[in-house]
Amino acid sequence: MRSISIFGATGSIGESAFDLLMGSGGPEAWRTVALTGGRNVARLAEMARALRAEIAVIADEALLPDLRAALAGTGTEAAAGTQAIAEAADRAADWSLSAIVGAAGLAPGLRVVERGGTLALANKESLVAAGRLLMGTAQRTGATILPVDSEHSAVFQCLEGGKLEGVELVTLTASGGAFRDWPLERLPHATVAEASSHPNWAMGQRITIDSASMFNKALEVIEAHEFFGLPGERIEVLVHPESIVHALVSYIDGGTLAHLGPPDMRHAIGHALHWPRREKLPLARLNLAAQGSLTFRAPCETRWPALALARQVIAQGGAAGAVLNAAKEQALDDFIAGRIRFTDMAGAVAHALDLAAGRPGFGASPDSLEAVLDWDAQARRDAAAWQTAAA
Ligand SMILES: NC(=O)C1=CN([C@@H]2O[C@H](COP(=O)(O)OP(=O)(O)OC[C@H]3O[C@@H](n4cnc5c(N)ncnc54)[C@H](OP(=O)(O)O)[C@@H]3O)[C@@H](O)[C@H]2O)C=CC1
Ligand SMILES: CC(=O)[C@@H](O)[C@H](O)COP(=O)(O)O
Ligand SMILES: [Mn+2]
């Protein structure tokens, strides 16, 4: 029986993974080692009961008594705190899903890779903030990292497992998010509610807003650079409002392979869960006759300044990814809290990158979790202070 752990079980990706596991035998077919959540004790306990998890961990330490009470009599151990989440990653599981949102996902993912495990990676922030560290550690320990982000899973599938021979260009598609067709002058007035609605995918609020600002695609360009080892100029973004084609791989002989599927993350998660085999998944099949047409257009860099920031970060290397990721997280917090406007987020991130570039050590890739977190903390402070600096 294969064993699994899910970090971020109570989120959108975690729920999709849970659905796949329950639909393919549940606890009779899978041994669940660890499930973690941030604050949603009730759902975490429900999932732990259903999958008979060995341990359930909640990030918020104040919620430990609630989790203990919810798991009483089940045999599932209860724990709390970020350290407990990282320690849960040390427990041997054949397959671990990294589905915590934000830089908080880096520590447990890195622990899985340090013990040479298999990490199915939805948490793109890990690769953006610490690509060299994560990929270098995997190389050293023999760990396997499998992409779960839909575009990267699509590229991986087109590459038949990651072979780069003869590849000229990788194209990541982007829906364009909530404001794809808004007049530019309306963007500064976009509300959090408006930005929190995605045209095609049902996802957590943070990645949904990142889709609207195109920061999601900016992260994904860096993620592709780190994961596949391709230079930035060979990674392109193409706006595709239908989100049916997830990525394309173009070869030096002029041929292009595309990966298509309905916008449902259970495909990419299921692919990583069963890799290197393919298993039948209970998902809707594509009906291109009903779809009728697929459309594409080049991204407008005036509407989406985040894309140029991604190019800048790849060119800078070193700590730039950690800075961009953290500054973006801070700017997103500030937008959600009403402290800055939607269109201010790119300015705050650019400001943090400018300041970081003048600091000693910026040109070197952070070589430990602590080093990543130092750049992360400073970038959050810089992004938060952007408004004052800009005034
Ligand atoms: N949703 C999607 O379709 C896709 C998501 N991704 C990536 O997958 C990751 C998860 O996204 P998504 O599922 O949408 O996010 P959600 O916001 O839906 O879920 C996030 C998960 O992380 C937990 N969490 C939040 N903060 C912390 C913290 N500080 N420490 C520990 N756990 C925490 C949440 O717990 P709780 O809810 O209990 O508070 C929840 O389990 C992100 O990196 C995203 O970019 C990539 C491609 C597609
Ligand atoms: C499902 C997934 O992988 C998301 O990252 C998705 O790509 C978001 O849609 P956008 O194309 O709007 O960024
Ligand atoms: Mn994606």
Automatic annotation (TrEMBL):
Domain DXP reductoisomerase C-terminal: start-end pairs: 260-381
Binding site for Mn(2+): D149, E151, E220
Domain 1-deoxy-D-xylulose 5-phosphate reductoisomerase N-terminal residue range list: 4-131
Cofactors that this protein relies on: Mg(2+); Mn(2+)
Gene Ontology MF: a single term: 1-deoxy-D-xylulose-5-phosphate reductoisomerase activity
One GO BP: isopentenyl diphosphate biosynthetic process, methylerythritol 4-phosphate pathway involved in terpenoid biosynthetic process
Keyword Methyltransferase belongs to the record: no
Protein keywords: Isomerase, Isoprene biosynthesis, Magnesium, Manganese, Metal-binding, NADP, Oxidoreductase
EC number assigned by the record: 1.1.1.267
Enzyme class per UniProt: oxidoreductase
Catalytic activity: 2-C-methyl-D-erythritol 4-phosphate + NADP(+) = 1-deoxy-D-xylulose 5-phosphate + NADPH + H(+)
Binding locations of 1-deoxy-D-xylulose 5-phosphate: K124, S150, E151, S175, H198, S211, N216, K217, E220
Family according to the record: Belongs to the DXR family.
General function of this protein: Catalyzes the NADPH-dependent rearrangement and reduction of 1-deoxy-D-xylulose-5-phosphate (DXP) to 2-C-methyl-D-erythritol 4-phosphate (MEP).
The protein's name in its UniProt record: 1-deoxy-D-xylulose 5-phosphate reductoisomerase
Species of the source: Paracoccus salipaludis
Taxonomic placement: Bacteria, Pseudomonadati, Pseudomonadota, Alphaproteobacteria, Rhodobacterales
